[in-house]
Amino acid sequence: MIVQEIEYTLKDGRKALIRSPKEEDIPGILDYLQRSSGETDYLLRYPEEWSRYTVKGAKERFERINASENGAMLVCLVEGKVAGNCQISWDDLIKTRHRASVAIALLKEYWGQGIGTRLLQELIRIAEENEKLLQIELDFIEGNSRARALYEKMGFRITGVGVNAVRLKDGTLLNEYHMIREIQR
After folding, report:
1. Which residue stretches of 90-166 are H helix?
2. Is 1 among the domain residues?
3. DSSP H/E element including 79
4. Confidence class for position 59, pLDDT limits 50, 70, 90
5. Quick check: helix, strand or coil at residue 71?
6. Is 87 strand, coil or helix?
C-alpha cells in the first residue's frame, strides 16, 4: 500500500519526510540496512547478512509491498538521507487476519529525534483503518531498553518471551520479548 507523504520537523529542527519507498531510495536503503545492523546487537541481522539483499531484490520488494493490500513499508528521509524505515503486514488467513506485525529500525545518529514515535504512529493509524485488525504485534531483544520504552509509550505490552531466542557471535544468548497493542476503536 502506498501511504501519503508526511513532512515534519525533528526535535533538532531538521526536516524529515516519511513516505512509501521508491526505486530512487534503493542505494540509500541498502546502505542504511548494513549500517544500522552494525550499530546495535538488537537487530536480527549482522551487516554481512544483508549482502544477499540486491538492488533487483529491493526493487521487487518495494513494488510488491507498495502494491499490497496487506501492509505497507515506510522510509524516513532526513535532508534526503535514509534515517530509518518500518513495516506493517498482515495476512488473509481466517484464524490470523486480525493480527498485524510491525518492525522498525533507525540509524543511531537519528535516535532521540522522535522519528521512531512518528513512524509507529503512522503504523498504528494504518492498522486502525483496517477493521479486520484487532492487534499489532512486535518483538524486541533483551537489553534494548530504548525500544521497550518507545513501545510501552505507544501502548504495547509484553505478552511472552522467547528464551535464548537470539545468539550473538560471541555466544551470548538473549531473550526476545513479544509485545502486542490492541487496536482502539
Report:
1. 115-128, 145-153
2. no
3. none
4. very high
5. strand
6. strand
Residue 155 per-residue DSSP state? T
Asked whether residue 174 is domain-assigned, the answer is yes
- How far apart (Å, rounded) are the C-alpha atoms in residues 180 and 101? 9
Map residue 100 onto helix, strand or coil.
Answer: strand
The CATH number of the domain holding residue 148 is 3.40.630.30
Domain count across the chain: 1
Compute the radius of gyration of the chain from its Cα atoms: 16
Domain that holds residue 48: 6-182
Residue 116 belongs to a domain: yes
Across all residues in the chain, what is the average pLDDT?
95
Please report the sign of the dihedral spanned by the C-alpha atoms of residue 116, residue 149, residue 50, residue 52.
negative
Helix (H) or strand (E) holding 16: strand 15-19
